[in-house]
Amino acid sequence: EGPESFPPLRNEAAVRVLQGRMKGIQGHCNSCYMDATLFSLFSCTSVLDSMLFMPFPLCDRNVQGILRDEIVNPLRRTGFVRASSVMHLREQLTDKGQCSSFTNAEKDPEEFLNLIMQQILGIEPLLKLQSGGQKEQECYCYQIFMDKQEDLVVPDVQQLVERSFLSSDLKLVEIPSCFIIQMPRFGKEYKMFSKIIPSLELDITDLLLDSPRECCLCGDVATLECS
Q1: Which domains does the chain have, with CATH numbers?
Q2: Which helix (H) or strand (E) holds 128?
Q3: 111 to each of 17, 19, 49, 95, how far by Cα in Å?
Q4: Do 154 and 199 form a contact (C-beta atoms < 8 A)?
Q5: Which residues form the Peptidase C19 ubiquitin carboxyl-terminal hydrolase domain (predicted)?
Q6: pLDDT tens digit string along 195-220?
Q7: What is the DSSP letter of 2?
Q8: pLDDT band at 177 (very low <50, low <70, confident <90, very high)
Q9: What is the pLDDT of residues 29-79, one digit of tens each?
Q10: DSSP assignment, residue 125?
């Protein structure tokens, strides 16, 4: 018999199971970067459920089991994950990685994703990016980098992604199977935006390399792009 699975929470079920006190993933000892990442990846979407079940070539079955049985399934079943479960995962990551501080220090979500996806599960990179016609680069998530812009007070994710790609002269080489986006920095010392509106859908038409698009003047297929 295979491992038990619970589907991601949708619509009314998501509100019923996840709303209220003592819901979500319990924080402990600088775990917020991992708690927020795990909640985003698994609570309401199944796009990355292969991480929980697939026997990837390099896959560490122990870490995969903890992720599935102690974190994702309880989150989807009861809406709550206790801090000890996340600490169990952090201890395993410390054993497997070259870094000894996964159990106590605050990390960047990208560092966590690279470790678990690349080194522990052996998943192929999710994104292929190209900057200014140079060699394409592969990665697991995209972090929004941009200068402070006065006209953006309460931006949405669509605006942030488009402006970040534009300022870095970036294009997506192909449509990604999963597009993990890390929002701009928000720490004790510095907050770029006090709020960001989630875009429920993301239009990546203008972010794709060599994708046919219409001319904004005549409506035919465009031959030139003006940034």
Answers
A1: 11-121 (3.90.70.10), 127-222 (no CATH)
A2: strand 127-131
A3: 30, 29, 20, 15
A4: no
A5: 24-204
A6: 999 999 999 999 999 888 889 899 99
A7: P
A8: very high
A9: 999 999 999 999 999 999 999 999 988 777 788 899 999 999 999 999 999
A10: P
